[in-house]
TrEMBL record:
TauD/TfdA-like domain ranges (all copies): 48-330
Leader sequence residues: none
Protein name, entry field: TauD/TfdA-like domain-containing protein
Family affiliation: Belongs to the TfdA dioxygenase family.
Record bears the keyword Ion transport: no
Keywords tagged on the record: Dioxygenase, Iron, Metal-binding, Oxidoreductase
Lineage: Eukaryota, Fungi, Dikarya, Ascomycota, Pezizomycotina
Amino acid sequence: MSTTVTATKTSSAETLQTFTIKPTPLWQPLPIEGDIPAPYTTNSGLEVVPLHPTFACELRGVDWSKSISQEAYDEIRQIADQYGVVACRNTGLTDEAHIEFSRNFGDLDDVRPYIDAGRKHRLAYPELFDAGNIDPETGNAAPLSAAQVIGNKANEQFHVDSSFNARRAGHSLLLAHVIPPKGMGGATEFADSRTAYDDLSEEMKQELETLVTNHSLFHSRKKAVPDYFKDTDPSKLPLSKHRLIQDHEWSSRKNLYIASYVYSIDGMDTVQGTGLINDLIEHVSKPKYRTTIPWEQNGDMIIWDNTSVLHRATGGTYEGKYPRDMRRTTVKDMSSYKFGLNDPSNEWRVGLP
Ligand code: OGA
Ligand code: MN
C-alpha cells in the first residue's frame, strides 16, 4: 500500500506572495584535513581517485555510452559501499539511461507525493526528482520567491534523502543537466557519518545505541525558513521512526543516522532531545568529516549512499538568476533497516508543493 500525506499552504496568502529568500553567499570549500589516499586502478581497469582521507571518490573509466553490465555495476556498487560518495564526470547520460542505471541499485522512488501536494512536475518521468531551480512554467531560473526555491533552501542543511518517509532512501543518483556559470556556486557538500560514529567515545556510543529518532520533512523546512513555514507544526504531521545508530549492511560498519529531518528523540523532552540532535549535527559537521564536490560540466553524476553519508546543497550567487538543472533518482533502501521502526505494511510518503 502506498499513501501520500501532504501539508499545503502554510502561511497567509499575503505572506506567501511577498516572501523571497536571499541567495546564499558563495561557499568556500573547507580545506581537507589529513592525507588523501593515492588513486588506484581496479582489476577491470576503472580508476578510483579518493577525494578525502576517509570517504568519497571520483570514478573514472566507466563507459557510460553503453548499457552498464552486471559486472560493471557490481564493481561500481562495491566502490559506493566503501566510499559512500562516487562522483562520475561527464557521463552524458540521458534521462532514460539515468533511470535504467539507477534500477540496478533497487526499487526507485518517485515524485507522486509532491505532485499530489500540488507541484507541477517539469520532467518526463516521475522517477526523476527535480533538485534544481528551473521554473516549470518558463524553463528559466525560478525567482527567489518561488515555493520550489524557498523549499530547497532546506537542502543546504546536512541531510539524508527521504528519511521522513515510512521507507527511507538508500542511494541517490544526482545528474547535472545544466550547471550555473563558473564561480557562482552550486557545489554539493558531503559528510562522513560512519567515521563520525567511529570517533564517538565508547560511553557515547553506548548511550546512543538504542535511541529512536523521529524524522519530519516539515521540521527541516521550518528550521531553514521559519517565517515561511511558521504555521506548520511537525508534531501534527507524520513522523518516521529510525534508529540513531545503524548497522550499515553494505560495509559492515556502523553509521550515525542523523539529519536535518530529525525532529525529536523518543523518551526525551523537547529541550533534551533538541540539545542532543544539535550536538550530533555539530559533531558530524566538523570540518574533518566534510568534503565539497564541485559540478564541473553538464553530465556529471554523483552517487551517494544515504545510509552512510550526509549531503547538502551549498547555494550560491546563481540563485534566482541562472538555471541549475539537476535531476535525481532516489533508490528506496534495500537493506533490512529500510522501514526503521515504522509499520512495513503501510508505506506512506510525504510531499510538499
Ligand atoms: C538532493 C540534494 C543537493 C544539491 O538532490 O537530494 O540535496 O546540491 N541536492 O543539489
Ligand atoms: Mn538531498
